[in-house]
Amino acid sequence: MRRYLFPLAIILSLLSAKQVLAQSTRSQGAVLERMIVVVPMVGAGTAEDPRRPMGMPAGDAKADSPIGYRYVISDSGRLAIVELTAPNRQHFDAALTAYGALAQAFDPLLHDRATVERALRLIRKDFDLDSFLGVIHLPGGVK
To answer: What are phi and psi of 28, to 5 degrees?
Structure first.
């Protein structure tokens, strides 16, 4: 009986570790909300005023907002496709209000993938939503 307890304990600990890892990856994906916006590029291109998407802090300046971002520049160099991330959707309201009519926003909860990609490929021909958002493709075609 004792010789079965050790292997059984190992199997149970591995199963519980698998459940904990699955829960942590689910919760990490749900931590931040996402929105994609298209905004003009601003800045003179100097150290004091670097080129950046409109509304983003210059250089080492700290933003007063908890919104994170990453971006790619359009083919023309005049626009940026920006992914905004925030702990909740209310943070996007202030950002979108500040952009006004100068921004085009795509909400993943409201816009389907084909609509988003079609619109963004007008701005950047080689735009790939999976690459931009960092989607990992697993073997067998599962995302």
So the answer is: -65, -40
Report H helices in 30-112. Answer: 90-99
Going by C-alpha positions, the residue among 36, 41, 25 that lies closest to residue 67 is 36
- Report the C-alpha gap between 77 and 67 in whole angstroms: 23
User: 106 forms bridges with which residues in the sheet?
Assistant: 36
Taking only the tens place, the pLDDT of each residue in 56-110 is 877 666 566 668 889 999 999 999 999 998 888 888 887 888 788 888 999 888 8
Q: Which of 38, 36, 88, 31 is nearest to 65 (CA)?
A: 88
SS3 content of the chain, % helix, strand, coil (to 5): 40, 20, 40
**Cβ count near 78 (within 10 Å):** 10
Query: What is the domain partition of the chain in residue ranges?
Result: 1-30, 33-133
The whole-model pTM stands at 0.70
Residue type, 79: L
Specify whether the CB–CB gap between 37 and 119 falls below 8 A. Answer: no
